[in-house]
Amino acid sequence: MAETSIISNTANLEKYLKLSQKGKVIAEYVWVDGSNGLRSKCKTLDKKPESYKDLPEWNFDGSSTGQAPGENSDVYLRPVAIYPDPFRQGDNILVMCETWSSDGKPNPYNFRHDAAVVMEAHKAHEFWFGLEQEYTLLDFTGWPYGWPKGGFPAPQGPYYCGVGTGKVFCRDIVEAHYKACLYANINISGTNAEVMPAQWEYQVGPCEGIDLGDQLWMSRFLLHRVAEEFGAKVTFAPKPIPGDWNGAGLHTNVSTKEMRAEGGMKYIEQAMEKLASRQKEHMAVYGEDNQLRMTGRHETASYDKFSWGVANRGSSVRVPRACAQEGKGYFEDRRPASNADPYQITGIMVETLCGMVEG
Ligand code: ADP
Ligand code: MN
Ligand code: MN
Ligand code: MN
Ligand code: MN
């Protein structure tokens, strides 16, 4: 632990967490800011809401988050989903929100709105998404957690799914985050240590349609919050350490009702043709600095050229061996970077496979 980090005295805090809330409920409104980060603020409610629809719209100062100019700074928060709050527990909730500008239009950083429109139009296809979120834990100085100060650990090899001291770092954070996600009804499907030490992965899904983006953003919020309590920083940078160290991705597993049914492979092959024709458009929303990661090495494909193959981890899209054998299932788009926005990824996927819709 870096000496400069500030760790709250959790034993002392325990006393206050146990105090009665006298029937009031705390709702923590969470939103995506103007730089792909998360923000939150809390509101006291008189009673527990049955659904997100019972929650009031709220607002914040968008000039402080890069989401609005100073002279017209109000940005509105519209609740879209609620989750049990694993930190406060009881009836308290976390609230995922969309951001709206004062002119009545979605805020320029509200990428959920367009994605939800295109998904609603094509909901008959029952899109399922499962995303593999990779990330790296840093100490307070910004160096990967557990790495020698100003130096490097031994080369990659023993760390992926590693067990034992010196092979994994911060398992406590990973474990706490896993439990927090389950408590919050996040459909977290698993977790594993990654190839680069201090790098980890968890998966969210399968979730239908826009629900994936909501759940993944909330899972990121939970990760930042948990890591905060342990004095670690989370980075979603796709290539946090240059050189012979694996980057971090956000593999996106996709299926439609047709792909999952008997003979579904035909629809997966059609999808590959459509994806091939829109490589540029997809890469534009698949995360910043992704060209640093997509070098064609370290289990990545080339940044510019689309390719796909069965069981091939060096191609843009991989069809799992088991799906090819069964002739149905799903495909894995390996291109998105760890810092990509799941609303934009899932939105463009539906748009490319099913067609654009006028918002
Ligand atoms: P990998 O072998 O690439 O590491 P993981 O096991 O980490 O794969 O992640 C696979 C993801 O695919 C999980 O999130 C899972 O929920 C998701 N998934 C499984 N089946 C489907 C499907 N039919 N459609 C969409 N996603 C799926
Ligand atoms: Mn104020
Ligand atoms: Mn995985
Ligand atoms: Mn991985
Ligand atoms: Mn994968």
Automatic annotation (TrEMBL):
<dbReference type="InterPro" id="IPR008146">
    <property type="entry name" value="Gln_synth_cat_dom"/>
</dbReference>
<dbReference type="GO" id="GO:0006542">
    <property type="term" value="P:glutamine biosynthetic process"/>
</dbReference>
<keyword id="KW-0067">ATP-binding</keyword>
<keyword id="KW-0547">Nucleotide-binding</keyword>
<dbReference type="GO" id="GO:0005524">
    <property type="term" value="F:ATP binding"/>
</dbReference>
<dbReference type="Pfam" id="PF03951">
    <property type="entry name" value="Gln-synt_N"/>
</dbReference>
<dbReference type="GO" id="GO:0004356">
    <property type="term" value="F:glutamine synthetase activity"/>
</dbReference>
<dbReference type="InterPro" id="IPR027303">
    <property type="entry name" value="Gln_synth_gly_rich_site"/>
</dbReference>
<keyword id="KW-0436">Ligase</keyword>
<comment type="similarity">
    <text>Belongs to the glutamine synthetase family.</text>
</comment>
<dbReference type="InterPro" id="IPR050292">
    <property type="entry name" value="Glutamine_Synthetase"/>
</dbReference>
<dbReference type="InterPro" id="IPR008147">
    <property type="entry name" value="Gln_synt_N"/>
</dbReference>
<feature type="domain" description="GS beta-grasp">
    <location>
        <begin position="25"/>
        <end position="104"/>
    </location>
</feature>
<feature type="domain" description="GS catalytic">
    <location>
        <begin position="111"/>
        <end position="359"/>
    </location>
</feature>
<comment type="subunit">
    <text>Homooctamer.</text>
</comment>
<protein>
    <recommendedName>
        <fullName>Glutamine synthetase</fullName>
        <ecNumber>6.3.1.2</ecNumber>
    </recommendedName>
</protein>
<dbReference type="Pfam" id="PF00120">
    <property type="entry name" value="Gln-synt_C"/>
</dbReference>
<dbReference type="InterPro" id="IPR036651">
    <property type="entry name" value="Gln_synt_N_sf"/>
</dbReference>
<dbReference type="InterPro" id="IPR027302">
    <property type="entry name" value="Gln_synth_N_conserv_site"/>
</dbReference>
<dbReference type="InterPro" id="IPR014746">
    <property type="entry name" value="Gln_synth/guanido_kin_cat_dom"/>
</dbReference>
<dbReference type="GO" id="GO:0005737">
    <property type="term" value="C:cytoplasm"/>
</dbReference>
